Amino acid sequence: MLNGLSVDVEEWFQVGAFERVIAKSDWDGLDSRVAYNTGKVLDLFGESGVKATFFTLGWVAERHPALIRRIADEGHEVASHGWDHDRVFTMDAAAFRADLKRARAALEDASGQKVTGYRAPSFSIDQRTPWAHQVLAEEGYTYSSSIAPLRHDHYGWAESPRHAWRPVAGSELIELPITLAAVAGRQIATGGGFFRLFPAAITDKAVARSNAEDGRPAIFYFHPWEVDPGQPRVARAPLKSRLRHYSRLGSMTGKLRGLVSRHDWGRVDAVAASEAARLS
Q1: Which ranges of the chain does DSSP label H, i.e. alpha helix?
Q2: Residues 204, 206, 208, 211: is their CA dihedral positive or negative?
Q3: What is the DSSP letter of 64?
Q4: Which residues of the chain have pLDDT under 70?
Q5: Bridge partner residues of 222 (DSSP)
Q6: What is the pLDDT of residue 266?
Q7: How many CB atoms lie within 10 A of CB 183?
Q8: Each residue's pLDDT tens digit, 77-91
């Protein structure tokens, strides 16, 4: 079964963990590592023969158009991660629509692809944003992968369905929640920091369970900065944020290489299309 492999393309300094200690006005003066790190990810995928979806910030596309073109030219999907990582629940519907339009224009200009997929920064579509899926549908997106169906201190909508669903009546829009894994009775997202911190077997089990027991594809995600153990350290960030961001960065490349070899992975738009047919 084809599972969705996704990369959330953002700079190391644009993450939610650092938003209170690094001002947006300082971003352009910081060490940009996103092109190099995403290049490493593209090389790994090329070696492994897999395609993926790169949910990319418009801010990154505007500054690194050659990177976006490379993603597209190598057969991957370029999709939207919003403009500059503002969480959706910090906006109203009008601001969200403007953010979508600005990001899509930059991504399509750089990639030459039509952008039809979206992932909210920090999985920030939840019960506080009842208008978000409607706006996505009105803007012509075919799918979103913006919900973590769990409870977490930074994100989560525990009441969401666990697999693909149609969030807007009368619309073809599909929501593809991130796949969950069970650890000591707790639900965690398959990807990102949890994938770095816990044994890869936990993610393998979650993917296998989704495929074999539920008969549904899994959705996995990570960030290019997670393959970069040499990235700058933000000493003034809270200890919890530093632990989440920097732990086991050196293990990520090897773990990813193993994961992509053990399951069938592809672009999220392909998964969305198969799930749309299932829901028809």
Answers
A1: 34-48, 58-63, 65-73, 93-111, 132-138, 192-197, 200-212, 239-246, 252-262, 268-279
A2: negative
A3: -
A4: 153
A5: 7
A6: 98
A7: 14
A8: 999 999 999 999 999
Task: Provide the pLDDT for residue 148.
Answer: 95
b/e 206-220 (16+ beta carbons within 10 angstroms → b): bbebbbeeeebbbbb
Alpha-carbon distance 21 to 39, whole Å?
A: 27
Closest CA to 249 of 221, 218, 276, 225: 225
pTM, full prediction: 0.97
| φ, ψ of residue 55 in degrees (nearest 5) | -75, 110
88, 120 in Cβ contact below 8 A? yes
Can you tell me whether residue 220 is helix, strand or coil? strand
For 176, the 3-state DSSP assignment is coil
Q: Give the pLDDT confidence score for residue 153 in this predicted structure.
A: 67
